[in-house]
Amino acid sequence: MKTIKEDIKKKEYKRVYLLYGTESYLKKLYKDKLKEAVLAGADAMNMAEYSGKGIDEKEVISFADTMPFFADYRLVILERTGWFKSASGFADYISQVPDTTVIVFVEEEVDKRGRLFKAVKEHGYVSEMNGMTETELKLWVASMLKREGKKITEATVQFFIEQVGTDMGRMQCELEKLVCYTLGRDVVTVPDIKAVCSEQLTGKIFAMTDAMAQGQKKRALDLYKDLIALQEKPLGILYMIQRQFHLLLVVKGMKEAGTDKQAVASAISVPPFAAAKYMSQADRFSKEELVRLLAYGARLEEDIKTGKLQEQIAVELLLA
Fold first, then answer.
1. Dihedral, CA of residue 18, residue 23, residue 24 and residue 27, to nearest 10
2. What pLDDT does 250 receive?
3. What is d(CA 97, CA 90) in angstroms, rounded to the nearest whole number?
4. What share of the chain has pLDDT > 90, as a percent?
């Protein structure tokens, strides 16, 4: 991302950029930054946007090869093409992109062994965007609030992240709520977050399994009732609890094998700081307990689907 910022600052662009990964907010942010900088107020006729599978490669190449109209560059934006997951003839064109054209790919997944990925890496720039570290997220939250004349302590930022999760698009929406709620005040507090921010479902499930691990049945059931009040479906909650147990079993096995936090985070698709919490929670269960709970949950799900148990009662039995 620093490289992209530097290119924009110098107004010297690579012929092709690939923005890929799981963090949609960052991909959109840097796509828009490149779009604004490359076009520099030029007519929209110098830009073409394509999205989804079935894009005509010849049409893209024809547009890219055309000289810009009263501007320095033409811009081509290609999103979710699937070309990086399959054989694409577009790889042969990457080395031939004119100096007056900038191509920006925005993708979810890529095959790093593919010809297109290798061509972009050789002739352009590849940026993997899978979210920020905990420290970076904290700084980002503080900077977003600072723009609105608000202050926040590090401990409060930590609570905010635990409450709403690490999806930056969702975080931005929750920050907008906080700015409106604290109108007339310059400090954001924990009670403010509790008052207006929606807690992520995975956070409640995590707290629920934590309560189960510590034998706090009442707290586990209270959290469950909160989710029911929010109109979450019992079968969906059962699935999320089972998913949590499965993740804990995976984490426990990796931890016992001496796997580091970074590798655990990658395996269960969470940020490293969140992986540390999973590793800590996994310590509260034995492998035998997790296997038994998974088996019991599977039986309850079967009882629900065969009409032997009501959904809500089944989940309560698991929590108890």
1. -30
2. 94
3. 11
4. 62
Distance CA 209, CA 227 (A): 14
CA angle 59, 63, 69 (to 5 degrees): 160
Q: Are 160 and 197 in contact (CB under 8 A)?
A: yes
What is the pTM for the complete model shown? 0.68
pLDDT over threshold 90, residue 104: yes
What is the Cα–Cα distance from 112 to 121, expressed in whole angstroms? 10
Spatial separation of the C-alpha atoms in residues 320 and 133, rounded to whole Å: 36
With left for phi above 0 and alpha for psi between -120 and 50, is residue 109 left, alpha or beta? beta
Amino acid at residue number 128: E
Whole-angstrom distance, CA of residue 100 vs CA of residue 55: 22
Please, what's the b/e burial string for 21-60 (b: 16 or more CB within 10 A of its CB; e: otherwise)? bebebbbbbbbeebeebbbeebeeebbbebeeeebeeeeb
Q: If you search the block for the tokens 């054989």, which residue do you land on?
A: 87
Q: Does the structure show a pLDDT above 80 at 43? A: no
Question: Residue 179 in contact with residue 150, Cβ under 8 Å?
Answer: yes
Instruction: Provide mean pLDDT across the span 232-244.
Output: 90
**Does the pLDDT value for residue 101 go beyond 90?**
yes
